[in-house]
Amino acid sequence: MLHLPESYLCWKKELIEIPIVIGSKAENQYIRDLKWPRQALLIAVKRSGLEIIPKGDTKLRAGDCILILTDDYTLSEVKQEINMLCTDCSSYDRE
Q: Is 7 helix (H, G, I), strand (E, B) or coil?
């Protein structure tokens, strides 16, 4: 169970935009099949100038950008986890 300080609700919310890069773990994956940080809310996928409201059956493609809502308290951790999914292609074996 996640224990947060009582002041958690007062913290500033942050919107971050992360690209999906070729060779990343998120490329060609359905949203429902990826392990998302608990403190993150995926609110949109930008693709070819359009914003898509994401659902579990939305497939992420290289070139997409995802919009994530989080807060100041967890921003650093969420960015690190999302970047590992979406931009780090060094540890992904594409067999």
A: helix
Q: How large is the average pLDDT for residues 62-91?
A: 90
Q: Which of 52, 8, 9, 49 is nearest to 31 (CA)?
A: 52
Query: Quick check: helix, strand or coil at residue 61?
Result: coil
Strand order, beta sheet including 50-52: 13-19, 65-71, 41-47, 50-52
The predicted model scores a pTM of 0.80
Tokens 């807060």 appear where? 71
Q: Where are any strands of DSSP class E within 9-81?
A: 13-19, 41-47, 50-52, 65-71
